[in-house]
Every structure is written in structure tokens, then in C-alpha cells.
Write a structure and sequence with these properties.
heterodimer; A: 115 residues; mainly beta; 7-stranded mixed β-sheet; 4-stranded antiparallel β-sheet; 11 strands; 48% strand; globular; B: 109 residues; 5-stranded antiparallel β-sheet; 5-stranded mixed β-sheet; 10 strands
Chain lengths: 115, 109
């Protein structure tokens, strides 16, 4: 079974440029998560989808960040415009459903560097 | 904001040493605790999901205990091997998983 796929793995851009990250979750997983991981810290949830619906986006900075999960499968996270402080690892995860026993399966992440 | 603390921040041990880390979290409104292992350049990998006070889980040389009343969990590694080198993250679950900063383990051959 293929795991969570993310692309690109690395991205270097100049500030004020737009950037997009793509995630393909494990087949059959209804729940998809985007996390932000700053150096030396744990991942922080940005947004959670149940199928195509964003059910928790309270931590997503909506002035510059946007996300979509059309058809409830793949998802894209966009930053426009990027700022220096956005340099971080962006992780995507999926789970079969939400619930206390449902472990999340993570992709390898996209490491973003904003110059 | 849920305050999750992990200690130590980093640990260097020799191959064969046994080691343990601590995860502390607020004990109120507790649902579950997840432990993850994250090797450099790889995906975080789930180790355990624990829910009951006094729960103990084991996977090979790695085990974990949970105390929900006082709000802590211990992760133990018996006879550390170089392949155990990784960052170990804990994450209590309320509305969502809240990750600690992790314990970075380096096992020297």
C-alpha cells in the first residue's frame, strides 16, 4: 500500500512569491491534515479535512494561506505571498477517520525555504 | 493552547544503553496520547496510541506507559541501536493532536 505522497520535497523561493504544495493521501482515508513544523518544534495543525470539507481551519493564516481538497482526495496548500517566516516543513497526514484510536499516517513533508 | 513538554530535548547514548523520555501534558479533558518516531528525511511514523490510565504498550524494544491522572507518559528503549536514532514526538489528543517539541535521540555505535 502506498503511503502519503507529497511534492515537491524541497522548495526554495524568494519572499513575496507564491508557492503550492501537493498531497495525495492513502487510498480510502477520509481525513486529511496539513501541519506546519518549525525548526526545533513539533508539528502544528493548520487545517483538517473530512472528505472535501474543511472542518478545522482555525490555525490557518487566511490572509496568505489557502487550501483545497477537491473531490475529497488530493489536497493543495498554497501560500501567497510567501514571507521569510514561512520557512518550515509542511507535512500532510491522513487517517481513515477521526477518533481517538485512529493514528495518522504522515508524508515526508515539503521543506520550504524563503529567501 | 495545550502545553505539551518533552524532556530531555536531546539525548546521546551508546549502542546497548537503555534510555527513557518523558512527555508531560495537562491531565484534564484527556482523550488519548499518541507517540511518533521521526527519522531524518523520512515520514513521522506512529508508535503507540494510548488511552487508559496505567496503560502499557510494547513494540519490540520500545515500550511506553501512561498516567492520565498526573498527565505524563514515559517512552523506554531497551538496548538502544543506531537505527533507533530519531526524534520521538508525543501528542495528546483533545480537539486535535498537539505535538510536543520532541526528544532527539542519537545512538552512537
Amino acid at each position: 500500500e502506498a503511503g502519503v505522497v507529497q511534492s515537491p520535497r524541497y522548495k526554495i523561493i524568494e519572499k513575496k512569491q507564491p508557492v503550492a504544495f501537493w498531497c495525495n493521501p492513502i487510498s480510502g482515508h477520509n481525513t486529511l491534515y496539513w501541519y506546519l513544523q518549525n525548526l526545533g518544534q513539533g508539528p502544528e495543525l493548520l487545517i483538517r479535512y473530512e472528505n472535501e470539507e474543511a472542518v478545522d481551519d482555525s490555525q490557518l493564516p487566511k490572509d496568505r494561506f489557502s487550501a483545497e481538497r477537491l473531490k475529497g482526495v488530493d489536497s493543495t496548500l498554497k501560500i501567497q505571498p510567501a514571507e521569510l517566516g514561512d520557512s518550515a516543513v509542511y507535512l500532510c497526514a491522513s487517517s481513515h477517520r477521526t477518533g481517538i484510536y485512529n493514528e495518522q499516517f504522515f508524508g515526508p513533508g515539503t521543506r520550504l525555504t524563503v529567501l | 493552547i495545550l502545553n505539551v513538554e518533552q524532556s530531555p530535548q536531546s539525548l546521546h547514548v551508546q549502542e546497548g544503553d537503555s534510555t527513557n523520555f518523558t512527555c508531560s501534558f495537562p491531565s484534564s479533558n484527556f482523550y488519548a496520547l499518541h507517540w511518533y518516531r521521526w527519522e531524518t528525511a523520512k515520514s513521522p511514523e506512529a508508535l503507540f496510541v494510548m488511552t487508559l490510565n496505567g496503560d502499557e504498550k510494547k513494540k519490540g524494544r520500545i515500550s511506553a506507559t501512561l498516567n492520565t491522572k498526573e498527565g505524563y507518559s514515559y517512552l523506554y528503549i531497551k538496548g538502544s541501536q543506531p537505527e533507533d536514532s530519531a526524534t520521538y514526538l508525543c501528542a495528546p489528543l483533545r480537539r486535535a493532536l498537539t505535538f510536543g517539541s520532541g526528544t532527539r535521540l542519537q545512538v552512537q555505535p
